[in-house]
Task: structure prediction
Amino acid sequence: MNVLLLSMPDSFEHMSSITIRMPNGALTSLAGNVDPHHRVAVADLILVQARVRETVDALVREHAPDVVGLSVMTFQRRTALRLIARLRVLRPDLRIVVGGYDPSLAPDAWTDGSADVVVRGEGEVSFRELLRAFETGRSLDGIAGLTYREGGSYRRNPDRPVTGLEGGEVRLPDRGARVLRGYTLLGRPVDVVETSRGCTFDCSFCSIIEMRGRDFHTYAFDRVIADIEDARDRGARAIFLVDDNITLNVKRFAALCRAIVDARLHTIEYMVQGMTSAIANAGEELAPLMKKAGFRYVFLGIENVLEEDLGFLKAGAKNARREGGRRTGNATLRAVELLHEHGMLVVGGLIVGNPSDTREAIEANLDFAARHVDWPYIQHPTPYPATPMTRDLEARGLVINDRLEEYDGTTAVVKSEHLSADEIEFLRWRRERFMKARHFPTALAHSPWFVLRHAPAMLAHTFRGSSLRSVLGLESERQVFARYQARRAAEREYV
Ligand code: B12
Ligand code: SF4
Result:
């Protein structure tokens, strides 16, 4: 069968598509796990943000797909639905399959006729079995993890148990299936690699637990190394390890760093996300190993520097400092310090605008970010489907916006007990631009040609909404903010 797999073009504030265009790891993993006789094409639409419709039309003409699969996050739902409407016109007999976080956690949003099949949870085995059933005309009722159209209604099969990764059931991704070019991280070709899946924490805002339960499964190192080598052989010079929480097993992470060095793959630059507690508590051994293995950017899930907010986010434990087996405070500062001491850069993940947040609480977090992190990744609480935080925020009546395309993390769609959503977003936006601008010299030193070539576009993106009049102080920040929001809204019209 001819299969076309698409990821959505929508990007968000902290990942401007000028500087960062990353492949979607799910699609190549699906491509690597279907039966080999299928012709699979993978297209990451982030690479063609300005010409989505033309590209999809051309892909459909070229590949004549029998099945199109879309990978969708919640803020991309509207774009996906628009694309589906277009696909139905282009090829009415097409079977449309959706998967990823939004279809898995809000399947009912897709069963109004838009999708033929929703794949809930992990996709490799379900999608392989689905294609077999399509090919042979068999019924879909025995395939776990599917919700599918039958006649005029939808049937929901039982959930698929989480796949253990240890036994080799999930084969390597097929990067050769990609048909678009242009992945980049500040000019370096970038790819994604997984070494594990899952997490055993239960932060209230995170979708992972509803998606997979609280578990942690790991790939064997020889598979991980083969995967990195494949990415490198196809040109990658930067790799994002997309594990949900690689720092759950610090000993394994340290051993992985050694394995990367032993395989001489440490000339690649790595990015990873981790917990402050793991880095602070084990960092004296771990940080030098990470540096040696080539890690450059470490995304830290700091979430908030105030204890009350950490309580709301249920993120206290993962940010706890421990000494001699006892909890002795917050781990963030120590984690940042250790990473900096070993020459790595900190992407600081913070969430501001929580229910009890006052202006002072938000400013305290912004002050912290301004002082300690290299790249701020500050978001607002966002009610993604099926998370405990969503239920809590809804029960308190704090969600003020149901336009899902704005659920991108940097649009405040939730008010606090003291501040409007608009005020919360304004407070973050006005300071964060300057924190980002401060990272320019570091980026310039590291990627001079890329940054020099793209500096005007990068600055224009960071300071969207600014004008000569605003620079001269002839306009208020509020006026600039309004223009920024209008620009942001216009950008979301990808299709
Ligand atoms: C890596 C990652 C990123 C990366 C890379 C994204 C990329 N290009 O793929 C970056 C840093 C860019 C990123 C950014 C964002 N992310 Co993100 N990200 C993740 C993370 C950590 C891992 C995703 C991953 O690659 N997993 C590995 C692959 C193999 O697994 P998978 O994606 O789940 O896919 C499997 C199944 O879902 C399914 N599947 C997926 N697609 C499809 C399609 C079909 C057809 C089928 C059949 C099956 C299927 O099969 C796959 C294989 O089993 C998750 C989870 C987490 N713990 O935080 C969040 C997560 C996906 N991100 C999320 C969000 C919200 C964002 C942001 C909007 C803001 C933010 N919080 O940072 C931005 C926006 C991205 C953008 N386009 O600009 C949310 C999504 C919530 C939701 N309900 O939509 C998650 C779940 C985190 C959370 N908050 O809980 N992200
Ligand atoms: S530690 Fe990270 S991956 Fe785990 S539940 Fe919390 S936010 Fe999600």
Remarks:
- The two ends are 27 Å apart (CA to CA).
- The first helix runs from residue 25 to 33.
- Residues 10-12, 15, 22-26, 29-30, 69-71, 73-75, 97, 99-102, 104-105, 119, 122-124, 127, 194, 206-208, 242, 244, 384-385, 408-409 surround cobalamin (ligand 1) (CB under 6 Å).
- The chain has 18 helices and 19 strands.
